[in-house]
Specification:
Radius of gyration: 29 Å
Number of helices: 0
Largest sheet: 7 strands, antiparallel
Structural class: mainly beta
CATH topology of the domain at 2-9 and 481-562: Immunoglobulin-like
Strand content: over 45%
Length: about 650
């Protein structure tokens, strides 16, 4: 039997960073002579980015030197994918822009893509050569479409209703479950399978939340509503599968979707609501925030500690943003719309609220958490606006009618940075997403020429005619960090099995193989599966890139050795592995159980050669000074005592 032994050398990799200023990475535009725009953006765990929206006419979707044309004169909905470096990968188009609208996209851990929105006519949801047709029952039905990482059709589902229904947000959890939210009128069957699960609205329109499993099978659906009209319905899902929904409501509304009643009544003409359901869709709590005028929420995010962040705009002169017994008043300025961000804890208790104030119409449409300590918002502003919610001032001036902003606060609500983009026309930034490497992506539409670099440097995009799609990438330049690699010590793999290397970093990881003295890239992302190897020694490298800095190459040495006799011993009861055996120099002892261990090595005369105490699961002994012969390895633990015969070559 042969085995593959992995030995990793560790390096501390310091990346050049500036924690206060975002680093411009790239920006791309897509468009023709008519109006084009992107509504939604998502990323995967390899740093790729997806965008969806509408294109009018036949246009070139590859902003690089190559050409990839798609679309139609009547207009098409598109989904496109770019890699981490801004290279075009693929585009898919579906339906007519008058028949179908994608409003939200998300990915799972495998890089598969999910889309939701509405469709108003019979439509083929397979963007490839196949056909998969769905037909709406009412004015418009909700759809969920799954594509794989290469843009190939997997399945499509619809929620059939007799009124006007729309999916607004889609998310997945760590188990692959799929959550959608939006609003509906009249009645809708939320089971996309052969069974039925019908919900009916209580008034002019209600908010729904739906959960499907990873295969698209119905799990549950819930309705939030009352005699008034409930608008929007945007969601976030935490690490425990709890669901948080936000939006706006008019009139008294029951936010308990079960047999109980939990009514909220708006303070003014329309209030913001935040509602929590558990992983089974049961009501946990609901809160409302508002003043005398109409106040609206458009996006919600949750951090790793369960903190909730809601953003939108408020018009009321004075709004109490503490939904509990306390009071925290913020006031809009100039009689227009101002931006708010409010943070609650997982129990719905107030933590803080911040505002970006101007004299025009300022709105935040999307909020995202970066997995570290950053909260990002994007939207539009139409006047000189202060984006520092603290005592200091950080004003952004407008170039045109409506400009784009991107802002970062930390999770304590402190200002970090903000930047704007605009032309003499009205631009829109519709969605924001982050990835695991500290990158921030926004999408929307622009006309004429915009400068996409927030620094003193300049990087412009020029539209091709009317409004173009833009995809914009920044990097937050995180503090210096160590790349962690797995496995963390020597491991044994038999020939005809593959081995997987993994690493984590604040940058994008590229894997390389040394082939005929040439270092060749073989994969990008947090892991690389090494193919089956013949006997020999192989060298692989990993490298991290962040902002404009690149780490040094980190080597991983793979050696495949012949094993005979006692070469590999494993005690199935105790999960102990001792290798290699016979041994020339280094001996590895893997003890895959917890607790204290005493490890002793005796020579053939019974003399104690080494003795150590450890709580670690792995230990490496050097036997280079031992003479050739037989030795006894003894392990004492709470599980008992175990003896192994060693051969030193």
């Amino acid at each position: 039997m042969n085995r593959i032994t992995l030995t990793l050398n560790f390096f501390i990799l310091f990346l050049i960073t500036n924690a206060q200023v975002p680093s411009f990475q790239w920006a791309k535009n897509i468009g023709g002579s008519a109006l084009d725009g992107a509504r939604t953006v998502a990323t995967d765990n390899r740093g790729n980015v997806f965008a969806a929206g509408v294109c009018k006419g036949i246009i070139d979707f590859d902003p690089g030197p190559s050409t990839y044309t798609a679309g139609s004169l009547s207009g098409k909905e598109f989904i496109t994918k770019f890699d981490a470096f801004g290279n075009f990968l693929w585009v898919r188009t579906i339906g007519d822009s008058l028949q179908y609208m994608t409003l939200s996209i998300t990915t799972n851990t495998l890089g598969d893509l999910y889309l939701t929105g509405e469709f108003t006519d019979t439509l083929d949801f397979d963007p490839g050569v196949g056909t998969f047709t769905l037909s709406p029952v009412g004015q418009s039905d909700i759809f969920i479409l799954k594509l794989d990482a290469n843009g190939n059709f997997v399945w499509a589902k619809s929620f059939k209703g007799i009124g006007y229904d729309r999916g607004l947000e889609i998310k997945t959890d760590n188990s692959g479950n799929i959550y959608t939210s939006g609003y509906y009128s009249d009645t809708v069957d939320f089971d996309p399978g052969i069974a039925t699960y019908t919900l009916g609205s209580n008034g002019g329109g209600d908010i729904f939340v739906s959960k499907l499993d990873a295969s698209g099978n119905f799990v549950w659906a819930k309705s939030l509503g009352g005699s008034g009209v409930q608008d929007f319905g945007y969601l976030a899902v935490d690490n425990n599968g709890a669901v948080f929904v936000t939006g706006r409501f008019f009139g008294t509304c029951d936010f308990d979707p079960g047999i109980g009643i939990y009514n909220l009544t708006p303070v003014g003409s329309g209030d913001i609501f935040i509602c929590k359901l558990d992983q089974s869709g049961n009501f946990v709590w609901a809160k409302n925030i508002g003043g005398s005028s109409a106040d609206e929420a458009f996006s919600i995010a949750v951090d790793n500690a369960g903190g909730l962040y809601v953003t939108g705009h408020y018009m009321s002169a004075n709004v109490d943003f503490d939904p509990g017994p306390g009071t925290f008043i913020m006031s809009s300025t100039g009689g227009g719309l101002d931006i708010f961000i409010v943070k609650l804890n997982t129990s719905g208790n107030f933590i803080w609220a911040k505002t970006f104030t101007g004299n025009g119409a300022e709105t935040a449409y999307s909020i995202a958490y970066d997995g570290f300590n950053g909260i990002y918002t994007t939207g539009n502003f139409s006047s000189l606006t202060d984006f520092d919610p603290g005592p200091a001032t950080f004003n952004l001036s407008i170039v045109g009618f409506y400009d784009i902003f991107i802002s970062k606060l930390d999770t304590a609500g402190n200002f970090i940075w903000a930047g704007g983009m605009g032309s003499t026309f009205a631009e829109s930034s519709n969605d924001i997403a982050t990835d695991a490497y500290g990158n921030v992506f926004t999408v929307g539409g622009f006309k004429s020429v915009i400068d996409c670099d927030f620094s003193a440097a300049t990087s412009t995009l020029s539209s091709n005619g009317d409004y173009d799609v833009f995809i914009h990438k920044l990097n937050n330049c995180l503090t210096p960090s160590i790349i962690n690699t797995t496995p963390a010590s020597s491991q044994t793999f038999c020939v005809n099995n593959s081995a997987t290397l993994t690493a984590s970093s604040t940058g994008i990881i590229t894997w390389f193989a040394l082939v005929s003295s040439v270092i060749t890239p073989v994969a990008t992302g947090p892991s690389y599966v090494i193919p089956t190897l013949a006997s020999g020694t192989y060298t692989y490298y990993m490298q991290a890139q962040n902002c404009s800095a690149t780490s040094s190459l980190v080597p991983v040495i793979i050696s495949v050795q012949l094993c005979t006799g006692l070469n590999e011993f494993k005690n199935k009861e105790t999960n102990i592995k001792v290798y290699p055996n016979p041994v020339k120099d280094l001996l590895t002892v893997d003890m895959l159980f917890s607790g204290k261990k005493e490890i002793l090595i005796y020579n053939v005369n019974g003399s104690l050669m080494q003795k150590i105490y450890t709580t670690e699961n792995n230990y490496l002994f050097s036997l280079s000074e031992y003479v050739a012969g037989f030795y006894l390895l003894k392990i004492n633990s709470d599980s008992g005592s175990f003896n192994y015969k060693l051969i030193k070559e």
